[in-house]
Specification:
55% of the residues lie in helices and 3% in strands. It has a three-stranded antiparallel sheet, with no helix packed on it. With 304 residues, it is mainly α. Pfam families: Phage_integrase (PF00589).
């Protein structure tokens, strides 16, 4: 989203107060940044449509705004805004409306502003996966420097172990059991802990990073327990991981957009060529087989 400049002073001041409220409520760092920016786009839309007062916010205006969002072209890729991102916009706008009502002496509980935002899910698009040769190419673009060795460990966890992005970032040192060749996932999207076996290649990349890179990146007095760290010795975050994926995109000749979840979809499809759907679900940490059915479709789409 391009930089938007609000002109309405009341809008700007109220948005600043909303940001401060998020900080005092100890919202996550991401939420302290994302929600105000989403609200800012809503206020900018109001300005562009001649709405300069909060009492002009009504159901019709909100409906038109979300119709606009659904169809607004993205700057970074083709297509419109995803369902997930629209849901985040919905949450931000509703919380802001409730905040404004509280400021003018009409405090309401969560979800009681009278505004309803119903989002219709877009038609699902076919998932993209990497073929085995493409996975090898991504591994091969990682060099033998400290960062290259770390990036191979990341790829091994994303592809070889099928980890979700959050599972990767929250992985702790004591979750890695080299003696048993297993990785323990405690913090899962489904709240369902699981142990994942490491193949020989995965364990090789993990050990190479642990013994030759991680300790050299850490300060001697560091208390960081995250498995993945940056070159500055800090715990890796979403932004760091996104930059690594961008770097892999630039270095490889693959036309597909490389993301963390692309590797998870890829290993799920590759495994389902030889394993049952139940086995794949257990490996990926799915509690419901409906979530795993996509790999049956992908297997037939890519391998017949």
């Amino acid at each position: 989203m391009k930089k938007l400049n609000l002109e309405n002073e009341v809008f700007k001041n109220t948005l600043e107060k909303f940001s401060i409220r998020l900080q005092t409520q100890r919202a996550s760092t991401d939420q302290q940044y994302i929600k105000p920016n989403m609200v800012k786009e809503f206020l900018y839309y109001m300005e562009q449509n001649g709405k300069t007062k909060f009492n002009q916010i009504n159901q019709k205006l909100v409906n038109k705004y979300f119709e606009y969002l659904r169809n607004r072209p993205l700057e970074t890729k083709a297509g419109g805004m995803s369902d997930g991102y629209l849901m985040k916009h919905r949450e931000a706008v509703l919380r802001f409306i409730e905040f404004v009502l509280g400021l003018i002496g009409l405090p309401v509980g969560k979800g009681e502003s009278g505004i309803r935002i119903r989002l219709v899910k877009s038609k699902p698009t076919s998932k993209v996966i990497l073929l085995e040769d493409e996975v090898k190419e991504v591994f091969n673009v990682c060099d033998d420097t400290m960062l290259g060795i770390r990036d191979k460990a990341i790829l091994s966890l994303l592809y070889g172990c099928g980890l979700r992005r959050k599972e990767l970032l929250t992985l702790e040192m004591n979750d890695i059991d080299l003696n048993k060749g297993r990785i323990h996932i405690a913090d899962s999207k489904t709240k369902y802990a699981r142990d994942i076996p490491m193949t020989g290649n995965v364990q090789k990349h993990i050990e190479d990073y642990l013994f030759n890179v991680r300790n050299r990146m850490l300060d001697s007095n560091s208390t960081v327990t995250n498995f993945l760290i940056t070159e500055r010795g800090t715990a890796m975050c979403n932004g760091n991981l996104a930059k690594i994926m961008e770097k892999l995109n630039e270095r490889s000749s693959i036309s597909k957009k490389i993301t963390c979840h692309l590797f998870r979809h890829s290993i799920g499809t590759h495994l389902h060529r030889f394993l049952t759907l139940q086995d794949v679900a257990q490996f990926l940490g799915h509690r419901n087989l409906d979530s795993t059915m996509i790999y049956t479709h992908l297997k037939h789409e890519y391998y017949g």
